[in-house]
Specification:
- With 242 residues, the chain is of the alpha+beta class.
- The protein has helices spanning 4-19, 21-92, 96-152, 160-174, 233-241; strands spanning 177-180, 192-197, 205-211, 213-216, 219-222, 224-229.
């Protein structure tokens, strides 16, 4: 009897599983439901991933648009400004013919200015030379006056003094020294210095010459010192007849 009882128990266990087919169906339904849940979860995950990718793509597009709006557009605007500036520079730049004409005018103007400069400096140089000559000759005029007085007294008729006088006056003549102021000359207040006026009429002439006047190359060096007198009678009669 002891040996038969366990066999009955094993039969009862087998009888429970085999005797309940609903349990087997429930187990299959659970597995199927779990599988469907896994599939749905996979689909949801894929959809979420797709949405995330679309969002990232949209964000990338927005970032690209933002980059174009700032850096790229600024670069394009700068390039356009440079092109416009270059075009304006090319349009305002003179042609080769215009540049050649301008340079020719500059050279002509420079040549004219240089010619004027040479003439001006030459005139100034000549003026300096004339001033120096005048200062030297002015120092010789007292000697010339002494020679004139000696000639009036007959001291220069002959001898070595006459030879020296002649050579000295030849040098002054070479410098174009000219004496003026003789009795009977018409009185000119610019070149004559009147010490005394003894004339009675409107016409005034040189009566007595106290000191000769001199001009160097047409330039007045010293006025003549004279006494004014009436014209000679012969000069008055000739002027009345005319």
């Amino acid at each position: 009897m002891t040996d038969d009882k366990p066999e009955v128990e094993r039969d009862e266990d087998n009888t429970d599983v085999d005797a309940n087919p609903k349990l087997i169906d429930l187990s299959s339904d659970a597995k199927k439901a779990a599988k469907d849940a896994d599939q749905d979860a996979s689909k949801d995950a894929e959809a979420t991933a797709a949405d995330t990718d679309d969002g990232d793509a949209t964000d990338d597009d927005d970032a690209l648009d933002a980059g174009i709006d700032t850096a790229d557009l600024a670069e394009v605007a700068a390039a356009l400004d440079q092109v416009a500036a270059d075009a304006e520079a090319e349009s305002t730049e003179p042609s080769l013919e215009e540049q050649l004409a301008e340079r020719t005018n500059d050279l002509q103007r420079l040549g004219a200015e240089y010619a004027n400069y040479r003439r001006r400096t030459q005139a100034e140089r000549e003026q300096v030379i004339e001033n120096a000559k005048a200062q030297v000759v002015m120092r010789f005029l007292p000697i010339v006056d002494d020679f004139g007085l000696a000639e009036q007294h007959g001291d220069l008729a002959e001898g070595p003094m006459k030879a020296f006088h002649d050579k000295f006056m030849n040098v002054l003549d070479g410098l174009k020294l000219q004496a003026f102021g003789d009795p009977g000359d018409e009185f000119d207040a610019e070149t004559y210095e009147a010490v005394q006026d003894m004339s009675t009429g409107d016409t005034k002439t040189v009566g007595t010459v106290l000191r000769k006047g001199y001009k160097l190359n047409g330039r007045l060096l010293r006025t003549a010192m004279v006494i004014i007198a009436d014209p000679p009678a012969d000069s008055e009669s000739e002027s009345d007849e005319s």
